[in-house]
Design a protein that fits this description.
Helices cover 34% and strands 16% of the residues. The protein has helices at residues 22-36, 71-84, 101-104, 124-129, 185-195, 208-215, 235-240, 257-264, 277-280, 293-302, 308-318, 321-338; strands at residues 4-8, 40-44, 54-56, 91-94, 111-115, 135-138, 152-153, 172-176, 199-202, 224-228, 242-247, 269-272, 287-290.
């Protein structure tokens, strides 16, 4: 009898997302591959989500896409649903951050939690409380908290079939991500202008004040172009057409899906050496890790000499969604065989 897995997805966006929604994207890729591997998977997600497994939903639409949905009410009902059905499953896989941990001691079904980064140090006490009875997976070595124990580090994977390789260097630099101060779009503008190369910006506006003050004034359609949120089917065209992706973040990036997606298209990445970047980028082979804007400009001048085929090959070796699913299936077996989290 196959292992019965309940996968708890966020409900901010649809699973899989139409455009933005990195957690929901990872959940979708994992769910679909686990089903293909023969596991009995039930996805708890918004009602408009798509899966080849079983779908359970108490929230018809994601709250970031439907303003009539009260986020807190939807989250409470959504999380409660999986625990009220917990006896039907061998294991719960939580991708919903820390709140489901507070339900975990009330049921006998073990739960593994993928920690998709720490939004604030203030949430760590919740993880600490359930450290001995829960099972935690880190998405990078850099994102491990020294105060917690982990069953594994599993890097995210992507579906390489959705990303086309582009062998020729592009004509523009690219920023691809949410428009928020910590993601560094303003740094990308500064570097691109000093390098004398057009910058294309793609992503949702998460901080309107920041966008209006530091991004919008530079958008002229010639030197700086803003595409808005890019739909899933457009991602590889936008990523593959770039000379390089600029990932000049001001925080310790837990993983960085856009970095992997860019390299899958053959586009190298120029990033500040923070967080998970040393685990993802092979310096001088698939991109450059830099210390400041001056280093980034030097990297822009050198990036055209990198082998774009090497970028694609490295993603194929290390960041496929099939590898991710196999790694998680091994964690499930370990937890179920050891009785951890019961």
């Amino acid at each position: 009898m196959p292992i019965r897995i309940a996968v708890l997805s966020p409900i901010s966006w649809r699973t899989p997302p139409r455009a933005y929604g990195p957690w929901e994207l990872v959940v979708s890729l994992l769910t679909e591959e686990l089903v293909r591997m023969g596991l009995d998977v039930t996805l708890f997600a918004s009602g408009d989500s798509q899966t080849s497994g079983k779908l359970v939903s108490v929230c018809p639409r994601p709250y970031s896409e439907d303003s009539s949905v009260d986020p807190k009410v939807a989250e409470c009902l959504h999380i409660a649903e999986v625990f009220e059905r917990s006896a039907n499953f061998d294991l719960i896989h939580n991708h919903f951050d820390f709140l489901p941990l507070t339900y975990s001691a009330l049921v006998s079904t073990p739960m593994v939690t993928t920690i998709h980064g720490f939004s604030s140090p203030s949430i760590v006490p919740v993880y600490k409380k359930y450290n001995a009875t829960g099972s935690y997976v880190a998405i990078s070595e850099a994102d491990r908290s020294p105060e917690l124990d982990y069953v594994a580090t599993i890097h995210h994977g992507i579906d390489l079939n959705r990303f086309s390789f582009t062998g020729a260097p592009g004509r523009y630099l690219l920023f691809f991500g949410r428009l928020h101060p910590e993601k560094g779009a303003h740094e990308a503008i500064r570097v691109a202008k000093r390098a004398g190369i057009k910058l294309v910006i793609a992503g949702i506006v998460q901080d309107q004040g920041y966008f209006d003050a530091q991004i919008r004034p530079h958008i002229d359609g010639h030197n700086v172009e803003y595409l808005g949120a890019v739909k899933a089917e457009q991602r590889d065209t936008v990523l593959g057409g770039a000379l390089a992706l600029l990932h000049l973040v001001s925080f310790d990036e837990p993983f960085g899906l856009s970095v992997v997606e860019s390299m899958a298209c053959g586009t190298p990445v120029i990033a500040f050496r923070r967080g998970s970047m040393p685990e993802i980028i092979r310096h001088g082979e698939t991109g450059y890790m830099v210390a400041d804007a001056d280093d980034a400009i030097a990297a822009v001048n050198a990036v055209g000499s990198l082998d774009r085929a090497a970028c694609r090959a490295d993603v194929e070796r290390r960041f496929s969604h099939t590898r991710m699913a196999v790694d998680y299936a091994a964690v499930y077996e370990t937890i179920l065989n050891s009785g951890v989290g019961r």
